[in-house]
Backbone:
């Protein structure tokens, strides 16, 4: 996994901007200039060394290498990375998608009961967000409430594309759904 997949591109760009091309700079000097904690900075530097973007001249001393150019053009957006929050959200969305496919007709409360695991943080907000995004992307359709206006809103799965869970992805100010079954990226229309 490359440094760009593990760390924020803005942080990597800041490191590369502070490292001189010809001479080396120590990790403590970099930490002071960038206002990064030493431990995360050391991890980012190690990843950049493995990618060949920078060189370790001696212990604790780094400089840019000739192949740093790809990192100079990194976008200022978090990449789809294997960080803990995204992995956790993807696991929850997979459990919710399995519950949706199993039930076909459901309420958010049904999904929470089916997808929750002992010891997990409450997933109510995540479930509501996921259902809203899927509905706006055309995967779900609202059904009439059974017991009047006070009953929970019911949903019907109208687009079952397969076992892989469609994942919500923030794109600027809005969201979209990325479906691994079809390879589509569907905007969540308001």
Residues:
């Amino acid at each position: 996994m490359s440094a760009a997949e593990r760390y924020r591109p803005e942080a990597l760009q800041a490191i590369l901007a502070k490292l001189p091309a010809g001479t080396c700079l120590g990790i403590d000097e970099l930490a002071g200039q960038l206002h990064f904690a030493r431990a995360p900075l050391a991890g980012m530097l190690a990843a950049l060394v493995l990618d060949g973007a920078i060189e370790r001249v001696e212990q604790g001393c780094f400089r840019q290498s000739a192949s740093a150019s790809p990192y100079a053009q990194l976008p200022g957006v978090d990449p789809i990375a294997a960080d803990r929050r995204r992995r956790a959200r993807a696991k929850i969305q997979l459990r919710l998608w399995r519950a949706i496919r199993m039930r076909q007709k459901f309420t958010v409360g049904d999904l929470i009961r089916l997808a929750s695991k002992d010891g997990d943080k409450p997933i109510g907000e995540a479930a509501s967000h996921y259902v809203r995004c899927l509905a706006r992307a055309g995967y779900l359709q609202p059904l009439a409430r059974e017991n009047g206006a006070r009953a929970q809103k019911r949903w019907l799965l109208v687009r079952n594309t397969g076992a892989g869970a469609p994942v919500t992805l923030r794109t600027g100010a809005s969201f979209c759904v990325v479906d691994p079954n079809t390879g589509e990226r569907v905007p969540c229309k308001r």
